[in-house]
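Re: weekly structure request thread

Next one in the queue (135 aa):
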Amino acid sequence: MKKISGIFILSLIAVVLVSCFGKNYDTYTGPPPREGPLEGEGAGGYQLSSLPESLAVEFVVPEGAPCSVKVELRNLGTKLVRTVIDSVYSPGAYKLWWDRLDSAGVRIRPKLYYYKYYICDSSYTERMDYRYHWE
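Done, posted below.
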């Protein structure tokens, strides 16, 4: 009788351990952080502000003749995610919004990226911390 109850207890412990540690359970910690403050009151209460500034590509083309501008979105592993701009611009300041899609047409994932700017004969980078934004 003691052998049967010992085997039963050991098998019960094994079943509990396999069921608890055999699956990958996601822990709910609340909704992801959203971007931008709450602005104004609509008919249903508060509504979200416009797109975050990180989705605006801002650059200045120096005085002189028009020149080529290329802006690439890259992840931290320097992999090209999308070429946001690849065109010729005349001198002036520009602020362009883009649609948050990668080169395959899929919405980018919230994480840290950077913009790589090529303007005329110079290049520089700018950090872009993208988080969830509900529309």
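The domain at 53-130 is CATH 2.60.40.4070 (Immunoglobulin-like). The mean pLDDT is 75.
Next request, please.
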